[in-house]
Here is the input.
Amino acid sequence: MLEIKPISGTLGAEVNGIDLNDELENSQKKVLRNLLNEHEVLFFRNQDISPLHHKSLALAFGPIQTHPAYETVEGFPEITILESTAEKPSKIEAWHSDMTFKKHPPMATVLKSVIVPERGGDTLWASMTAAYEGLSSHMQTFLSDLIAVHDFSHGFKETLAEPGGRERLKDAIIMNPPVRHPVIRTHPETGKKVIFVNSLFTTHIEGLTRSESEEILNLLYKHIITPEFTCRFQWHPHSLAIWDNRSTQHKPINDYFPNHRRMERITIDGDNPY
Here is the structure.
């Protein structure tokens, strides 16, 4: 029997009583999807699953996407490697939703810990549903019809600035031109409104002056990380998280340098935000 333990007042729950090495039954898939809609991010402990089972779990939620910029697990091009070492530390510091530079950003992400530092390296999540509900009705109305631009090159500007970076990612740049998404999107399963701009990939809001756009985006970026909208997860070896990429943002805490941290990630295809 599943045991569900919420970890904050707003989002996040640990799920116990399931072995993700086992093939999921249709009823279990439905339960997990309902739990994801309810809690927005699910956490599992002691899940020493293979890349094949990692892929199978992701497929339980939908078709799988690939990523144009990261190395992948041998034999599994769908599984990207997120690794930070003393020689090559992580560059991702900002709050973000995964891959909003795509026309169809991921519906969800499944992240597995492989190597974790003895201390540090936690991840924060924030509920964009709660953040939207925390806005005044006047601000909700003002934002409701606005469109923002998201850009791959903006999110990977540090990598592009490295020697040879632009050449290495030239195909990714060509295949991922800037896209337009609503500032406030509707969750396609719950029907709830969520804030859908993030500091990593969003460049500006259309129809506003540059200074107006920056002021509104900075206001939202500050608002969405209000502590009451967030939760924090401490990774152990063989931990696993599934989060709703449509209604959350997350941020890795890079406080473990020069220690080694390796995670493996699969993103699940989503729809066109509306």
Q: What stands out?
A: The longest strand covers residues 76-84. The radius of gyration is 18 Å. The chain has a mean pLDDT of 95. Residues 64 and 268 are 4 Å apart (CA to CA).
